[in-house]
């Protein structure tokens, strides 16, 4: 099956405490607004992070999300932390052929990979909704490489998308001053010389993954693609694709939602 638009659109959104509560657990139902905002970009696949409370009450929020998005859950995974990461898809556009969560506990928030059959492609599409740890670059490198290992093992066509929580390989000169960061963020995201710590991005680059925003910015000269997406003025939300998908990348977009992160969307030509 192929989407009518002849491209696959993959969106990602960090929900901020599930989109249904505050940081201290009080009800704060922002989900309907988030869902409506995501629908405006007409995604075929939606990757969500910080799915706090989505496994509670017989997964009532999951079924609500399926109705609100007009999608089906490919998989919801939890690691050692509260919350987790989810992948949804539009069944009339995509055909799911697998959900791999055997390595769910290898990252703090959970590692799961959705696999899809795509008409005309020789291999499956592997998509991981990703939320890396914030504690240190060293810990984030370990988690990032575990995600990269999974998506590249399952297919040559892999997408690692979500809250990468670190500086990207390039930001178009938009890196904020370390002095403006909270002490914990400064220790985790800047090196001892107060320069942006890009070790996670460089390691993923060495592993063969390409930053979609940077790739399209370099190609088009549009530096607006480097705009920050999360706390501290950093483009923490990123879409990284395997090298064979770079020629198929058509778009990278941002979507403002009722969360503390800007959503991102990539288009992949069929």
UniProtKB/TrEMBL annotation:
One of its GO terms (molecular function) is catalytic activity. Residues 23-261 form the Endonuclease/exonuclease/phosphatase domain. It holds the Pfam family Exo_endo_phos. It comes from the Bacteria. Residues 170-196 are annotated as: Disordered. Residues 183-196 have a biased composition (Basic and acidic residues). InterPro entries: Endo/exonu/phosph_ase_sf, Endo/exonuclease/phosphatase. This is Endonuclease/exonuclease/phosphatase domain-containing protein. It comes from Streptomonospora alba.
